[in-house]
Structures are given as C-alpha cells and as structure tokens.
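A favour between colleagues. Tell me how you read the following sequence-structure pair.

===
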Amino acid sequence: MNKLSDKVAIISGSGRGIGREIALKLAAEGAAVVVNDLDAGPAEETVADIVARGGKAVPCVGSVTSPDFAERFVNTAIDSFGGLDIIVNNAGFTWDNVIQKMTDEQWDDVIDVHLKAPFRILRAAADFIREASRKEAEEGREVFRKVVNISSTSGLLGNPGQSNYSAAKAGINGLTKTLSKEWGRYKVNVNTVAFGLIQTRLTQPLTNGDASIDIEGRQLKVGVQPSLLKAAETMIPLGRVGTAEEAAGAVYMFCIPESNYVSGQILVCGGGRS
C-alpha cells in the first residue's frame, strides 16, 4: 500500500517547480491532490500529468493573496475528495532589493505571499480540522494530519538584498512553532522545510540576458549570475545545487506516518549548509 493512500493534500504554488514535484510525489504515494497555480495552464498540466499516471487531482487556480482564496482552496479539497489531511504552503516568489531601495510594495507583496497567505490557509482549515479530530477521538481513532510550511535558509541566516523574503521566511518558522503547540491536541504535525539553493526558474543562471516572471502583470527579474552560483556551490558540502525532486523528497518525509511524532521542527534541505 502507498504511504499516503486515502489522504487528501492541498499544495499552493504546485503548477511549476518545487511545488509541482511535491504534487507529483504525494500523488504517486496515493494522495488526492488539489493543485494550485496563479495561472490555469501550469495547474491543469500538473493535474493532467497526475491523472495520466493513475492519480487523483483537481486544479484550484488563483493567487494565494486574494481575500477569498484560502476558503476556496480548502473547500476544493473537501468538496472534491471529502476531506483534508495535508497542507503544504509552498507558493512564493522573490523581489529583491537592498533595504534603502526597497519599496513598500516590494515589502508588502513578498510578506503577503509568503506569510499572510499561509496564515489565511491554515485559519481557513481550522474548523474542518477541529471537527474531524473531535469525531475521530469519539470513535477511538488516532488520525494524524500534516502541515508543511516552506521556508528558506534566508529565513535562518539572512541574505543580502532579501530583507522582505528573509523576514517572511523567519515569520513562517515562528508560525510553525506556534501552530505545532496549538494543533497538537488535534493530532496535527506542523513542520517547516527550509530550502537552500535549489534549481528552479528563480535560480536559473543568467546566461542569455535578463530573465523574468510575470506576477499578476508585473515583470519581475529572476535568475542568478553564474559566478555567484559557482561561489555558492563551494559553500555547499555536497558540492552542488539541489534539484526540485530532492526538495520535494524533504517535504514528503514530513507527510508520511513515520513522522507522526515529529512536530514544530525546521528541516534544512541545503546539501549540508545550514
């Protein structure tokens, strides 16, 4: 039997990159997955890939920062699959600048997507989780649910040019610690995976001019100078950048029954650099 059979997972930002690999991994282990992306195309493509491999998935398209998104996301899982067992708060982007040049918009937008959106999603799930836990306790069953929040080594160590992102990721670590204490009585394991340098479109080498991504009509520059990537690799004990599949594996470890007695922890997935 697959380790996540009969489980239902919602994964924000799962149309592309690390989020997509998390969705594919959990679905391969039996979970029914709600796939979210800002754009319909990537979300529907990931859903189609899961279904083609024999899994179960539905899309929930939209920005995690929209006021009505959290309830819609949670209800998509309950309405489509009858429950909710795993929440992965993964969606995000970077918008870097040194502090004297950072605008309020840059600060607010990054805080909103990385910290406020996970808070809203978890708050929206609270009623279902409490009620489900109560019923299971009355039936004499111990059912564990999982929350995996995505952080970064920037939230642990800081990173020049990322005061907004580092602050948001430090905040998600605090949210994890607190919620593990609030939700322990409901048999919910709440943990964080903090990524180091992982291969994604945000960390691609800048070899052909400036690359950019579209975030709700804004073109934001992404990518890293090859010389900086090379220098970063020398600080990683394993000697290379991580893959999106490896990042998904770290999240998966917090979703399986073997982690039922692990909560309130921050796991660094950084090739030995922490």
Remarks:
- The first strand starts at residue 8 and ends at 11.
- The chain has a mean pLDDT of 93.
